[in-house]
Write the structure tokens for this entry.
Amino acid sequence: MGRRVGILTAGGDCPGLNATIRGAAKALYQKFGEDVEIVGIRNGYAGLISGDAQEMKQSDFSGILTTGGTILGTQRTPFKMMQVVEDDGIDKVARMKKTYHKLGLDCLLCLGGNGTHKTANLLRSEGLNVIGLPKTIDNDIWGTDVTFGFHTAVDIATEVIDRIHTTASSHRRVMVIELMGNKAGWLTLYSGIAGGADIILIPEQPYDIGNVVKAIDRRNEKGRTFSILAVAEGAYDVQEAKMKKKERAAYRAERGLKTATTRIAADIERITGFETRIAVPGHIQRGGSPSAYDRVLATQFGTYAAKLVEEEHYGVAVAMVNGEVVDHPLEEIAGKSKLVPADCPMLEVARSMGVSLG
Ligand code: F6P
């Protein structure tokens, strides 16, 4: 008996999506030969809602191991809106089920982050055969040690920090580098360590600007005339940590500085008098070819998903645990996220190196 498999990529793109699609497709063709049909759903759940899908050919999966982005397109379709009927009157869940059945799918592979897994779990509860695959540069999916895209982003962010080192030292400046991660600081922590940042600020560890300034001063006293800060976009200070969301928004609006890095840079310059600059690599961190590590990881995850399809083992999310690819029930992971815990050994590594965590 063959299989008809749908694949979609949802949420923000990242390196390794195509490598995962390829891994799943090639392994499915190996297992089923002519007896597998693969249907690509365009632009994530939006395509499932609107019925935008295409039959894929074997050749569609060639030459994509090294390419960034996603051949299927992607879109953010927030989970909180999935069960809400908006002005257009569309019942999104009903439409997704309709498309799935109209396409005659046996199962659907959903490549994405936390939001994607929540919707995948919703579809599972509605009776669809779904498999989740963990992508995100944020590395914040619960139940997996690592997500594909993360290591490539660490490599890119590390190169940014490396390059900023030379200009920071030439100009004797403080450089504040804003790295992606609204809630999770993994990318900032890992690239900060890899790039030798002097100060690493992540959302899980609210900073005290006094400690940040002290760290810069200490370096200066030792004759180090520049400092590098790796700052997650979602970092906040100890005062903000005590505030409710609305109060925090008002406090920030009052300062007129919208981002963490602008607030931190302004404070450093005001208190220390050191010339301070901000660098924002932004979506460069998600762009381009996946690293060798991510190509291998993506291929491991993709081929594992093909095995799950063969075994008709659905309603699960693929994960890496202690070097082994495993699967967890979707309902166990949906709605949870993996932030940097206070006892994370990597925080201790940073502290042992004399890195300030604010
Ligand atoms: O989830 C990945 C991520 O890159 C986050 O680190 C970042 O906060 C967000 O996506 C940016 O989203 P967008 O691409 O929609 O601006």
Summary: The longest helix spans residues 150-171. The pocket of 6-O-phosphono-beta-D-fructofuranose is lined by residues 12, 76, 113, 136-138, 180-182, 233, 286 (CB under 6 Å).
